[in-house]
């Protein structure tokens, strides 16, 4: 007696005659909206780097570079798991893959939250980064190939629908993350105003004598208040008291995402073999508009032997590298470039809204550019991405320089508009690449080929954040050294309780920062903070130039790679 197929099996989800293919869109959007919250990672950064100090970074707090690498690990594992899952998806179907994706993504939040509570950074890496990253990859590939099979007549639109959700995930996550963090946030114990407290500096750290014991503290100055999650008075706060509320937020999000992702996974259906839309006639291979749409199919393993695969790999990698580094530090970058020059406008809430708008334009770009590519052709669409992107990335350092010299709302508006346009093309690149693959390699194995191409995303997940944090770190060190040269050594020692000779220790302990140095710098000193990202932007423009060349060299796949029949 034969056993009936499992409720998760591919055989159980073959659509019956008359099934409405548009019902697949909610399932694709549901999973992608959940896993797309990874793009809101920068909302956690300000709190995670104050896990112990709460109102300001303490000496033993994690650094921005350390917490950004959690995001990097997640993206690396996304690409690697997608490369493996692509072929597995063809065998077991999207429902099984979707359920496993839900278990990994939710499990990553739970493990990551435990890591935050216990102060174990490695557990945050393993949880959110590795386990959650695998959930990202599995959840990412499951809807894409399914929708392409249901919409062979509108490939760009189909991939735009699926991947639009991933871009919009941060938009929905932003109010939840911000709201939960504020709800669970608890200010640390307030010791008193700085002038009223006897501070002691040892090895760069600040201490007070309290209840007969020496206790570590952080000092909050006027430039630090705007960055506080919950506003408190300037002055001295005890380290190790209060809570930033991130762990509790992780646990709450895990419960929400579990319900949504499981519900979406059980909505999946696949078309019967040989199905195509009623009345649809496949387009000719050469339509006279450079679209290079093939009627043939290329096997997953054979695709890796073609130059077209590696050209697309370079294009995706460098386009993602250019955008993902900015995404990883978006909230911090907005605050640093404009927070000190336009503090009445750009506060913590404004920076959080900036992340929300990035998600919105990322999402709109995924759908809009993908649909436009059905008309323009994929190659022409990527010409726009790379050519215009080079100009826009080169413009950002100019806006940052101008706001340092003469703070004005105009530079904020131009910066905002420029980055929003960049993120439409960043999202559009993701949404259009599966259709580009289907045009070149056919639709039969597009899910598996797409999964392997996403290793480019893994590579970009390392290159982008590494470039932006390393170059920012170098620029920060250079800026601090320049400011110290302009400050009277006696005033420096009075402010930090140690001389300039102890600068390295003071910086390592986060006692000395650019913001605190600007409080004692001579009048007329230009704040170097807005220029911290200039070198990164020029590097990203250079990467897009390489991608532009790869796209220009794209040609149809040679017939020897086609499957017979």
Q: What is the CATH H-level superfamily?
A: MFS general substrate transporter like domains
Instruction: Indicate the proportion of strand residues.
Output: under 5%
Taking the alpha carbons of the first and last residues, their distance comes to 36 Å
Task: Please state the second-level CATH architecture.
Answer: Up-down Bundle
Summarize model confidence as the mean pLDDT.
87
- The level 1 CATH classification is Mainly Alpha
Radius of gyration: 25 Å
Helical content class: 55-70%
Number of strands: 5
The largest sheet has its strands arranged as 1-5-4-3-2
- What number of structural domains do the residues give? 1
**Multimeric status of the protein:** single chain
Feature tags:
single chain; 565 residues; mainly alpha; Growth Hormone, Chain: A; five-stranded antiparallel sheet; 5 strands; 64% helix
What do these coordinates show?
With 565 residues, the chain is mostly helical. The chain is 64% helix and 4% strand. It has helices at residues 24-35, 45-48, 64-92, 94-118, 121-150, 155-184, 222-225, 246-265, 300-303, 307-328, 330-338, 348-376, 378-405, 409-441, 446-453, 455-486, 489-496, 503-508, 514-520, 534-552; strands at residues 190-192, 200-202, 205-210, 213-220, 235-238. It has a five-stranded antiparallel β-sheet. Helix 1 packs antiparallel against helix 5, helix 3 (64-92) packs antiparallel against helix 4 and helix 12 (348-376) runs antiparallel to helix 13 (378-405). The model has no long low-confidence stretch (mean pLDDT 87).
């Amino acid at each position: 007696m034969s056993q009936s197929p499992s409720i998760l099996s591919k055989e159980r989800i073959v659509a019956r005659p008359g099934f409405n293919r548009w019902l697949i869109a909610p399932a694709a959007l549901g999973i992608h909206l959940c896993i797309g919250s990874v793009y809101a990672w920068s909302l956690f950064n300000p709190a995670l780097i104050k896990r112990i100090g709460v109102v300001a970074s303490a000496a033993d707090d994690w650094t921005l570079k350390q917490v950004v690498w959690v995001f990097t690990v997640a993206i690396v594992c996304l690409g690697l798991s997608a490369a493996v899952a692509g072929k597995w998806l063809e065998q077991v179907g999207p429902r099984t893959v979707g359920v496993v994706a839900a278990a990994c993504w939710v499990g990553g939040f739970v493990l990551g939250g435990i890591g935050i509570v216990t102060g174990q950074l490695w557990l945050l890496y393993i949880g959110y980064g590795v386990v959650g990253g695998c959930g990202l990859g599995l959840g990412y590939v499951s809807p894409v190939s399914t929708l392409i099979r249901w919409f062979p007549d509108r490939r760009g639109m189909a991939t735009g629908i699926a991947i639009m959700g991933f871009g919009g995930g941060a938009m929905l996550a932003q109010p939840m993350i911000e709201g939960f963090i504020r709800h669970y946030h608890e200010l640390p114990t307030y010791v008193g105003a700085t002038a009223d407290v006897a501070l002691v500096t040892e090895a760069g750290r600040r201490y007070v004598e309290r209840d007969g014991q020496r206790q570590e503290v952080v000092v909050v100055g006027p430039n630090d208040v705007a960055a506080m999650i919950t506003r408190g008075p300037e002055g001295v706060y005890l380290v190790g008291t209060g809570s930033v509320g991130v762990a509790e937020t992780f646990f709450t999000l895990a419960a929400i995402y579990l319900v949504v992702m499981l519900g979406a996974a059980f909505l999946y259906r696949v078309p019967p073999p040989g199905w195509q839309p009623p009345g649809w006639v496949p387009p000719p291979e050469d339509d006279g508009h450079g679209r290079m749409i093939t009627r043939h199919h290329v096997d997953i393993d054979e695709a890796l032997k073609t130059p077209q695969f590696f050209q697309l790999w370079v294009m995706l990698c460098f386009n993602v590298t250019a955008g993902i580094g900015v995404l990883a530090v978006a909230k911090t970058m907005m605050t640093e470039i404009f927070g000190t020059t336009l503090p009445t406008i750009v506060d913590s809430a404004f920076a959080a809204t900036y992340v929300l708008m990035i998600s919105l334009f990322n999402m709109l770009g995924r759908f809009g550019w993908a649909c436009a590519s059905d008309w323009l052709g994929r190659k022409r669409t990527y010409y726009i991405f790379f050519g215009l992107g080079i100009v826009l990335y080169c413009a950002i350092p100019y806006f940052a320089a101008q706001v340092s010299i003469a703070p004005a709302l105009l530079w904020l508006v131009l910066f905002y508009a420029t980055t929003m346009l960049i993120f439409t093309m960043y999202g559009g690149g993701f949404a259009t690449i599966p259709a580009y693959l289907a045009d070149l390699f056919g639709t039969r194995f597009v899910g598996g080929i797409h999964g392997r191409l996403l290793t480019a995303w893994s590579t970009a997940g390392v290159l982008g954040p590494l470039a932006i944090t390393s170059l920012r770190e170098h620029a920060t060190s250079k800026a601090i050294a320049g400011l110290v040269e302009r400050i009277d050594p006696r005033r420096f020692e009075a402010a930090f309780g140690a001389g300039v000779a102890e600068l390295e220790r003071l910086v390592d302990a986060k006692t000395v920062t650019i913001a605190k140095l600007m409080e004692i710098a001579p009048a007329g000193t230009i704040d170097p903070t807005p220029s911290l990202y200039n070198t990164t932007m020029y590097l990203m423009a250079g990467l897009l130039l390489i991608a532009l060349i790869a796209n220009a060299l794209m040609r149809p796949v040679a017939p020897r790679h086609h499957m017979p029949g």
